[in-house]
Each structure stands twice: as structure tokens, then as C-alpha cells.
Write a structure and sequence with these properties.
478 residues; alpha+beta; 3 domains; six-stranded antiparallel sheet; three-stranded antiparallel sheet; 17 strands; 43% helix; 19% strand
Amino acid sequence: MLSTDEILTLINEDKTSEKKRFARIGQKYYEGEHDILNYRIYYYDGDGNIQEDKFKSNIRISHPFFTELVDQQVQYMLSGDNNPIRSDLPELQTELDSYFNDDFYSELYELLIGTISKGFEYMYAVSDTQGKTRFECADSMGVVEVRAKDTDDGCEYFIFWYIDRIDKGKKKITRVQVWDKENVYFYVSVRDGELVRDDTVEINPRPHTIFTDKKGKQSGKGFGFIPFFRLDNGRKQFSGLKPIKALIDDYDLMACSLSNNLQDFTDALYVVSGFQGDNLDEMIQNLKSKKAIGVDDDGGVEIRTVDIPYQARQTKLDLDEKNIYRFGMGFNSAQIGDGNITNVVIKSRYALLDLKCNKLEIRLKQFLRKLIQIVLDEINKNNETDYQQKDVYFNFEREVMTNASDNAQIEKTDAERQQVQINTILSLANVLDDETVVQSICDILDISYEDIKGKITPNEEKSTAQALTELKKVIVNE
């Protein structure tokens, strides 16, 4: 088992790792903390020394494109109405729904946000008060993978630390969990001080799963492996910010520079000649308050304004915005187009977002398979069943906005096509047998032939098939 000194050393080394440094940048940009917030303006003084200009306008505004792109991808991934974890076995589906419910998808939402913004995120398995396994998201900034050797594939320990709260005097309460293949060890640290055993946890160390029998006695058992699972945003675990960070920074700089120009040149310039007086402050005060100053016979006041070259900056802003959505592979809701917004045009605008989601969906399915295996093992143990991975599949149906006018036209076209097909079948009624005719009509109208067959009672002069044919004619005419 790791000592407290070893745990603190591993945490501190992980904080300064290059991997976490890049992930932290993605997290900051998702939270709207861009590099522009640290932007400063400098100039060279008369002696050639560089100085910070603290009097010139320095407006610093973040434009959170990355926040929109991340939320957009996550919402689009989970936009379907139904639970994407499906099974054709009703009993198994009921069991799956009890595990993968609203609480799980809330954690999955956080997992996807962390994966896209930081490049990777974790989820781990815990047991609730009833001994049922559930899954929670773990902030990747506070997860340390510990291997016995750097060349090992598997981890010997997982360290999960987080700031529980900040007490009076800005005293940070940091809680640390060390996971091995059987147990979880709990520690606490106050104000980055000594790491000590957490006495607030009733069972410490605690097995991965806790069971309570009818007499109220608790017992536990480990999974035999560390139930921490990582979802990566690609093989190299890069944040989705990587291809567009420079574009966002350029947009921030162009927009803020334009704001600075407008701020610095809001007032007109007064060119005064032949001023009768020796007090410049008095002249400025007269211009502001009395709107008049005294000049000699050859004097005068000329008002000049400065034309700000905003057109070039506006063009650059538009180009940056276009490229941010293009290389960020997102849907630009501000895109106008030529006004011909058909379903085909809408789908084409979702093409890049679909491509990006398809790439992440492959890894998400691999990730969910690991969680499903834990759930299936628990279901099989509790119910004495033998469900397998092949009994579970995924159905990610993403919702895309559509044109209502187009939808109505499509429905009308489909109805006309059905009418033509039915008329064609009825014209062949003398060639085909009655049952084939009726079954073909049922297929076109998506009606079960067996269900409707029992609702018709033929008379002595009509066969069942003939009665069904007449019924279909009534349906088509209506």
C-alpha cells in the first residue's frame, strides 16, 4: 500500500505533468477564461525601454466559442428521446433501465463535457445503500494513474483527490481516495497540510461493494479490478480546443482591438488657432461647458474626427468565426445562407458535427461496454440469469431540426405513392389470389394482416379476403 508521503508526491507530480497542463487549458477555455484576459499593452519610452501602457484602453472580452462547440456536441450526442442502451429482451431491458437511468445520464453528460474539453475524463463504479452498483463521473484533473512500472499496461492504484469545501480563512479541505483491486482507502488534508486517515468514513478501508443482510450486518467485496474507466477524445487524448485555439485567440484580439479603437477615439479633435488666453485648461473647459472660446481676427476652431478602419477588422472577424466552426466541426446557427432552408440544406450544415460525433460515438460504445459488463454480472448474480454482451446493443438517434413545410410535402408524396401502389395491386386482383392482394395492401399501409383478419366476419357471399379488400378500399378513400 502507498504511504501518505508517496501519495502526496504522486499528486504533486501529476499536477505539473504536460498532459494535465494541456487539459487544464481546455478546461479554462470551456469556462470562458481565455488568454485575452491576461493581455497587456506595451510601448517603448524615450530611452528605448519597454513599458506597460496603463492609460491606453485595454478592453479584454472572451468570446466562448469553445463552450458552445462542446455543449453543442454533447447535446447532439444525447439528443435522442430513448435510452440508447437497448435490449430486445423485455426482462433485461427493465433491469438495464434501473441502472442506466436519469442519474446515470446526468453523470454521462458531465463525462462527455470533460472528455471533449480536456481530452479525457473518468467514470468509476460505487455501490449505493442498497448494494446496487452505480456510476459517477470523476474530474480527470484529480485522477492519478499509478503503475508499478512505466511500461505496465494496467494500473496498480488509482488516486482520486478533490477539494471538498473551503472553510473560513480560505482553508481548503481536500479529500483523497486511493483505489486498489479490492478496497478504497480514504484520506483528508487541511490547507495542503499533512495527509491523514479520514475518520468521517465509517468503513476505512472500504471494499468496492457493500452488502447489508436482513439483520443489518454489513459485508463487502472487491471487483477484483480497479473500477475506474477512462474515455478519451482520440488516441492522443487531445482536447477539442487544440485545432481552434489560435483562431479563438485571434478573434478575441481582433474584437478587443476594435473595441479599444472605438474607446480611444470617441471624442473629436479640436484644432484651435489664434487663441486669446494663456490657460489651456480654461479653453478646454469652455469648449465642454460653454461651447465657445475667444480667438483673434485670424483665429478659429476646426473640429476633426478620425475614421476608424473597422471594415478590415470586421472582415477578419467574420473569417475567424467561419473557420472556428469549420475546423471545430460544429453547427453555426448564425449562418444565413441564401434563404433556401430545405431539409437537405439543414442536414448538410450538420455534416461536420455528425462526423465529429461519429468519431466520439465509437469510443463511447467501447467505454459503455465496460460498464455494461459490470451491470450484467450483477444482474446475473442477483437473478440467477445468464445474460451476455450480445443481448445489449446501442441505438444513438440524434435529432436534427427540420423544415415543417418540407415534412408536409414528404408526407403528401408518401401518401400519393401508397395510393399508386394500392391501385396497382387492385388492378392485378384478377391475376393474384385474394389473400395475396390483401396482405400486400396491409404491407403498404403498415398494418398487421393477422390482427385485422380476425376483425372481419365474411358473409355467405364474400370470402374473408374479399371483405378485407373492401375494408382497405375504405381506408384508402378516407
